Amino acid sequence: MSSGKKKKQTVGYRYGLTIHMGFCHGPVDAVSQIDVDDRAVWKGIDTTPPPPDSGVSGWKKLLQEAARRLRSNIVDGDTITSSTTIPIRAWHIFGGDEKEGGVSGTAEICMGEQTQGRSPLLTAALGSSIPAFRGIFAIVFRGLISANNPYLKGWQVLVSRVLSGWNTPVWYSEKAAIGVDMNPAHIVYQCITDTEWGMGYPTAIIDTVSFAAAADTLYDEGFGLSLMWNQQSTIQAFIQIVFDHIGGALRIDPKTGKYQIKLIRADYDIEELPVFDPSNVSELQSFQRAGWGETINELTVAYTDPDTRKETAVTVHDLANVQAQAQVVSQKINYSGINSHDIAQRVAIRDLLARSSPLAKAKFTVNRQAWNLLQGDVFVLDWPKLGLSGVVLRVITVSTGTLENGMITVEATEDAFGLPISSYGTQQDQGWINPLAPPAPSPARLLTEATYYDLATSMTAADLSFVEPDDGYAVIYAQQHATATVDYTLKTRVGSADFVAVDTAAHCAVATILSDLVIEEFSAVNISIVGSLDGIDEGDYAIIGSEYVRLDDIDLDTGLLTIARGVLDTVPQAHATGSKLFFAEGFEALDPKAYPDGALIDAKVITATTTDVLADDDAPIDSIEIVARHNKPYPPALFRLNSDYLPAEVDRAVTVSWAHRNRLQQTVYLLAQDESSVTPEPDVTYTIRIYDQDSVLCRSVTGLTGTSYTYPIEDELTDCGGMQTHLTVELLAVRDGIESYQSHSHRFERNYGGFGFEFGSNWGGA
Fold first, then answer.
1. Buried b / exposed e along 419-442 (16+ C-beta atoms within 10 A)
2. Of 120, 177, 187, 721, which residue is most buried, by most CB within 10 angstroms?
């Protein structure tokens, strides 16, 4: 259906493409989120319970994620664990058509398995000669990527890889994952043994006892890491980054020639440590203690926030050192592989302890009693001449000497690297609540059928002439939710078909009436308004229930609304306190498709914020049956019984009167019920139906063309079988067998006013 008021103009363009994006080596374990320009366009479900030792916080996060999904408008699905195809429906993520569009299309998630086939989307675009791109985690996307801006925004994918992609059997799999992170011992193990991108050493070169002990400790600490090696540095440098995070060292045991992991922890008993003193040390070459000026007293550790996946930081202080130096000396360290507030706090304290204390360094030559000292080991140094007794040092390097000279040279530093068991502080809650809450369903909606007035005021005369008399058009009015929704999209369907977007509209203001509305021609009622009244004028129509009313006056100070009742093709009806009144005119969403009389239409209101849209499954369904409303004659107005409007009692003969209305003429001003007749619509007649006290039809009078009809008492007594306590009169308009959309109806008490009757056989006399 074309529209005079709503004629579409090209104001911009949508942009789409087919793109193949490679992210990392594959295969990967899972894909849990896809972002475009740092905004989520797809999220996966993770229903895995948190580890047993995660406490309340772990379960809280799981419940928060469940709640997020209940109100999310993004097309979500199960966390992806194998190559698959998913829909992405986030067209409003950058503001929709009014701004920079969003992302909407089909994404092939290519996990990189060795069984991965060719991409159907790439094959369609490039032909069947393309490879399957196995061993690479990639996404092939085809669809819309923006509006009014032809530039592709950056894509980010949240993936996890712990058990996939091993070209050796997965080692110690039960301790490989720590939450969503990977056990650092397993990271190092794979870096050493992977034959494709790692160092390629055989697994036999690993001291599995040492590695398993380290894996157990890190697992118990909850010290998992999530890191990406981009191959711009050597694998050895990447391994060192891992040990910088966890506080440890990779070393080779000279007895076995195997790799070991040594974690730097306070995991020793001083009484059991080897002791080096003048009895076995041939020369103490140096012993120096750092000055306060060589230390720091404020340390900032940058790490990855587990919720936002963005860099955040924690800062710790040594107040005694600040006093000693009379100033703050700061340092920042980046540990991007840490994804835990607690671990970041503990690591910050660990590193501050090492950097804020004036630790001693020593270098000495010792006999073969130090033959089994390795990097990271601890020992005790006693040196009476310097007043040293029970000083715990940790080995930095060991030189084992030569065949001619078997003396061993050790360089060590005072130990201060015990990882604290408890954190000295907790992550502070930001205390900030995002005002842009996820979109929520419209709290009040009114799905109805367009009136003749709606069509005549929104279409050209030529277009209106092509509207079929037996068709109808669905329209909906929707209230704005309390969240910052900007507009909504109307989606409709017939039967079991898919919902299709048909129009976008602004929300309308909605009022709640604070007292009952009885059937009358004019009303003044107090209301409570939700939404802006901008664009609403006196003389516009509003809708309450199925009754259209004219807005005559709105006093915003008192909340008093004055309305003319039953305008257009409706008549006054009763409405209870709490009923919703929609300030409707000009705020409709219209389905432009013409539906035949009798069609059943389902509709959904898909609300949108500036960054997101409501998920289709979260939108309630409203339904309507098309009745070709626009083609029905208007009911008459000025309904009177013996010259009174809705009298409680009617005496003697019943005279019904009314005024003409004309749907073809009433397209500028909404006539009130009490206004005079106009030229009637051609071929319109009136029907009166009279019902007895038991609501049984007594008489039906059709084909009336005037503005009144009198029902004689004599006829009433014959039709209804005698005197009645009550009668009901119904008045409606008819044109070519088509009855008006609504009709007047009133039940009243019957008073015969002393009218005499003969009962049985009686003699009369003068």
1. beeebeeebeeeeeeeeeebbbbb
2. 187
Closest CA to 473 of 626, 261, 638, 245: 626
**Structure-block tokens of residue 690:** 């009279």
70 has a pLDDT exceeding 80: no
pLDDT score of 145: 87
Tokens of 429: 């809650």
Q: Is the previous residue joined to 51 through a cis bond, with omega within 30 degrees of 0?
A: no
Cβ partners under 8 Å of residue 261, min gap 6: 185, 188, 210, 211, 213, 214, 248, 249, 250
DSSP state string for 382-440: EEGGGTEEEEEEEEEEEE---SS---EEEEEEE---PPPSS-SS-PPP-----SSPPP-
Token pair belonging to 359: 């630790």
Q: What is d(CA 313, CA 347) in angstroms, rounded to the nearest whole number?
A: 12
DSSP per-residue letters across 715-744: HHHHHHTS--SEEEEEEEEEETTEEPSS-E
CA angle 195-200-201, nearest 5°?
140
Element (H, E) at 455: helix 452-458
Measured in whole angstroms, how far is the alpha carbon of residue 425 from the centre of its chain?
A: 33
Asked whether 485 and 610 are in contact (CB, 8 A), the reply is: no
CA 490 to chain centre: 18
Nearest to 43 by CA among 19, 18, 66: 66
Q: Are 548 and 453 in contact (CB under 8 A)?
A: no
**H/E element holding 211?**
helix 208-221
Q: Tell me what pLDDT residue 203 has.
A: 93
> Across residues 484-496, what is the average pLDDT?
86
Apex 46 CA angle, 41 and 50, nearest 5: 140
Percent above pLDDT 90 for the chain? 55
Q: How far apart are CA 399 and CA 172, in angstroms?
A: 34
CA nearest neighbour of 106 among 132, 125, 130: 125
Question: Residue 39: beta bridge partners?
Answer: 36
* Phi-psi group of 353: left, alpha or beta (phi > 0 → left; psi -120 to 50 → alpha; rest → beta): alpha
What does the block give as tokens for 727?
């009668």
Structure tokens at 112: 């990189």
Going by C-alpha positions, the residue among 41, 21, 19, 24 that lies closest to residue 32 is 41
